[in-house]
Structures are given as C-alpha cells and as structure tokens.
Amino acid sequence: MRLLLAAILALTVLPVRGDEVPFAQPAPSLDQHRQSYTVALSDAMELTQLRHIKLWLAGNAKNWPLANYELTQLKDTFDKAAVLYLNIPLEYIASVEKPLGTLADAVAAKDSVQFRRGFMALQTACNECHKAADVGFVVIQTPTVSVFPDEKFAPVR
What is the CATH number that goes with domain 2-15+40-132? Predict the structure, then answer.
C-alpha cells in the first residue's frame, strides 16, 4: 500500500521531476553504490526543511519556475521517505498529498493566495507528523529570512 501511495504521489502531484535536470543524472555506475546507502530520516528531514525554505522564498518572490523546481524536489524527498522509512504511518504520508497538490496548482496558475494556503497546509501536515513521531518540539514555520544569501529568489529577467 505504501509503495502504491508513493507511486500515486509521484505521478499525480507534479509533472516535472527534479532529476530531469540534465546535470542531475547520476552516472550508471553509481546506481549500485546508492542502493547500499540509506540516509538517516533526520538527514532527509533537514533536506526537506531546506527545500521548504527555498520553496517559500521562491513562491513569495513569485519566481514560479524556481518554486516549481523546489516543489518537485520537496515532493521527491517525501516520496523517498515513504518508500525508505516503513514506520511512518500511512496517514501522515498521505497528509501531504493535498497540500502538495494545492501548491502545484498554485504554482501552475501563478496564484500567490493559493500558494500561501497550500504552504500553510503543508506546514500543518509536517507539524502534525512531528507531534505523532514524538518530535513535536521540531516546529516548522514560514521562513522569515533567507539562509541562502548567495541565491536570488526574485524572478530572473
């Protein structure tokens, strides 16, 4: 069931995958090495947090191509977590599906109001999962500053 949900999430939320970026293609010889290494869930969540920040900064700046890219990366991380960490209850994995869909629709429509709504719903889903996992002290909020001073989030003209 978990694999089915991950596959559905992968196919329904966003049409573009981040690994379609030409430079992001792994060398074929790396595939066998990747299978022997599983990242810690805490590390995956820190990566998710960084993508969450970048998604907000891009969407807030109305840089829709960057927001789409970051949303794709964020979704990919959730999909991988669903497959790699079987102890995450299905209901918490499923709880991000609707907010990710709302965000995808908002980005496609370039709708800032819908983007904010989806972003808040995603944060709520994250925080509910943290509470259920006994890490409720990890509270995700809307970023107030950029921790990426070397990246431009405003649309490129």
Answer: 1.20.120
